[in-house]
Amino acid sequence: MRVLVAEDEPRIAERVVAALEATGYAVDAVHDGESAWFQGDTEDYDLVVLDLGLPRMDGLAVLKRWRAAGRQMPVLVLTARGSWPERVDGIDAGADDYLPKPFQMEELLARARALLRRAAGQGAPVLQAGEIVLDPRHMRVTRGGVPVSLSPLEYRLLAYLLHQKDRVVPPSELLEHLYGLDDERDTNALEALITRLRRKLGSQSIETRRGFGYCMARQIP
Amino acid sequence: MRVLVAEDEPRIAERVVAALEATGYAVDAVHDGESAWFQGDTEDYDLVVLDLGLPRMDGLAVLKRWRAAGRQMPVLVLTARGSWPERVDGIDAGADDYLPKPFQMEELLARARALLRRAAGQGAPVLQAGEIVLDPRHMRVTRGGVPVSLSPLEYRLLAYLLHQKDRVVPPSELLEHLYGLDDERDTNALEALITRLRRKLGSQSIETRRGFGYCMARQIP
DNA sequence: TCAACGTTGTCAGCCAATTGTCAGGTCTCA
DNA sequence: TGAGACCTGACAATTGGCTGACAACGTTGA
């Protein structure tokens, strides 16, 4: 999961980034509207946390430009302006949710989860495929009820595949989402990672579609 | 657009129903948890506005039962319990959004619009010819509902033919599309490919128009 | 400070699926 | 009936993907 955080107040930005990273997302941070717009326009994010009061370009303007250009990613708007007319504006400009400042970090994370979940077209609070269950709230993974311990990278890979449910995800997309910005990696690193994950989850858990990519195995429940 | 409103306080329920109806939605209202659950489980709604503090069955329980039963409709949760831990619970139980009371009606409408907009964005465009179905999102092909596993090249060929539907596609065009080159590639490679595809999809699936090209057979299902 | 450990990228070798080629077939139409 | 268009089975070269081994790196704890 790649997340872009656009927030100009250093203390808040730092806390948000730390919390999101601790949750296992790959996070990029920018501190003004123009950079935010550029990043969101050129890179592929699963979620954007966007402050409305950004320097150089207003957050609302950034959001509108993205939407006008057809960018679909879920956007969680942070705003200090708590009165409801602005909220309504934000939502109608294409925000998927907003959070008035000040907020509890836990609440931001819950909303982030909800948006990512919704974007994946899923209503359940846990991600699941067959006997594999991933609980994003507690960052726990079980296989048939038995806890499985995953490394950070393994966890991110599994979470991404589960979010995509039975879509086939090409290796290039996985590489981009796992390693954040401009990291050029050998696809073999990904293959090794898949192998390690399979060893922990069972070789049947992740399906290879030769020539296309990977997806979680569709199990017949 | 059908909307279900589950709210037990008569004054609020009345205002919400009126506002939604004024917007042009068809609205059903219930006033306790059991009725809410029953309605949501048996009828098809595009959106549910759900109060958490319902008599007879708690709103959260209603929501969880829906989700457990696989009901996917967007749910906007209303709650008087404004503290953030309950909000987190609500969101994690499968709510798509929540609105703390008291709220401005305009804000509720904006959120309703956002949820409906998002739900509408999920159409699954599939390519089809007779019993052959190609789902581009899942990169899956089925024949009479039975999954068929295709190689990358076979998949591309089929996708192209399905896109052209009832048009007869000359071999030169197929070669160009499959191999990029406008060249002297042996048309026999294409013939071999067609043969392999036919073996998987049924020999009737692809029609040969001698001297012109190929097209998907128009089947009468 | 150093050793033990876990994580992750790299490398090399292996296996199996994919796909082009070839050598015959079969079909169709003049 | 024969020429060309098309089909198909066999085969081999190529490619994509898997995995065990190892090394680099950071973390932890004594």
Fraction in beta strands of chain A: 15-25%
- In angstroms, what separates the terminal alpha carbons of chain A? 27 Å
Unreliable residue stretches of chain A: none
Largest sheet of chain A: 5 strands, parallel
What's the rounded overall pLDDT mean of chain A?
81
Spatial ordering of strands, largest sheet of chain A? 2-1-3-4-5
Rg from Cα of chain A: 18 Å
**How many individual helices of chain A?**
8
Q: What's the helical proportion of residues of chain A?
A: 40-55%
Most extensive interface: pair and counts?
A: A-B, 32 and 32 residues
Q: Report the strand count of chain A.
A: 11
Question: What is the N-to-C succession of helices and strands of chain A?
Answer: EHEHEHEHEHEEEEHHHEE
Assembly state (oligomeric) = homodimer
Query: From the helix content, strand content and strand pairing of chain A, which structural class follows?
Result: alpha/beta
Shape of chain A: globular
